[in-house]
Write a structure and sequence with these properties.
The protein has 227 residues and is of the alpha/beta class. It has one domain: P-loop containing nucleotide triphosphate hydrolases (Rossmann fold, 3-Layer(aba) Sandwich), CATH 3.40.50. It is built from 9 helices and 10 strands. The protein is globular, with a radius of gyration of 17 Å. The mean pLDDT is 96. It binds cytidine-5'-monophosphate. The site of cytidine-5'-monophosphate has 13 residues, from α2, α4 and α8.
Length: 227
């Protein structure tokens, strides 16, 4: 069977990573969560006090970019790769609401984007990859054989993310999660560099009323049409 590149883009908390992980497992492909990379850079920015609620020293971040080393390491017990920032496993730290609140601001910085896009293209050069993010079908792999664009109502997405965070013991309110989802959507779709847009050749899936299984089998059919 021919190896392909699968690009999954869409708004925050649309279940992109759940779908991407299911597909990677089924096809024995590599899965890359590019959001984790932007989150790890954000964590670095926060830890170095380059950003807070009313201040963002972009120059300090840009000057430090060469010191940021990102790596995915496969965790066989979990069945997917975890994010390492300068050698430290930061998988838990990057999923907090604090990081979510700053990540879209960090992801607006062009120098951050070009560093990460280069690394993503390198990871996908041999195909057999499922990558999810905001600009995968438009910028990272404009020639991907299959492009999916995922949407769902902001309320549905916030409810899902809220339940996820609660399960992890994160003490957040639904209102704060909804606010974060709406704010990130706004920044991600309005930024100058690589805004979140649907690629002309992407297939749009609104999963507000689709179960995971229904969505998965619909996408498997799309893959069968391509390979
Ligand atoms: O996918 P996730 O919600 O973890 O992504 C976190 C943030 O990282 C997004 O809201 C967006 O600002 C940024 N991002 C991006 N481009 C990508 C992936 C994520 O700008 N390819």
């Amino acid at each position: 069977m021919k190896k392909i590149t699968i690009a999954i883009d869409g708004f925050s908390s649309t279940g992109k990573s759940t779908l991407a992980k299911q597909l990677a497992k089924e096809l024995a492909y590599v899965y890359v969560d590019t959001g984790a990379m932007y989150r790890a850079v954000t964590l670095y920015t926060m830890k170095n006090n380059f950003i807070n609620a009313d201040f963002f020293d972009k120059k300090a971040l840009i000057d430090s970019l060469s010191k940021i080393q990102l790596e995915f390491k496969f965790n066989a017990d979990l069945g997917f790769a975890e994010m390492y920032l300068n050698g430290e496993n930061v998988e838990k730290q990057i999923r907090t609401i604090e990081v979510s609140n700053f990540v879209s601001k960090v992801a607006e910085v062009s120098q951050v984007r070009s560093k990460l896009v280069e690394q993503q293209q390198e990871m996908g050069k041999n195909k057999a990859i499922v990558m999810d993010g905001r600009d995968i079908g438009t910028v990272v792999f404009p020639h991907a054989e299959l492009k999916i664009f995922m949407t769902a109502s902001a309320e549905t997405r916030a409810q899902r993310r809220f339940e996820e965070l609660q399960q992890k013991g994160d003490n957040v309110s639904y209102e704060d999660v909804l606010k974060n989802v709406v704010e990130r959507d706004y920044i991600d779709t309005h930024r100058e560099d690589s805004p979140l847009v649907i690629a002309a050749d992407a297939i749009e899936i609104d999963n507000s009323y689709l179960s995971r299984e229904e969505q998965f089998s619909a996408v498997l059919e799309l893959i069968n049409d391509v390979v």
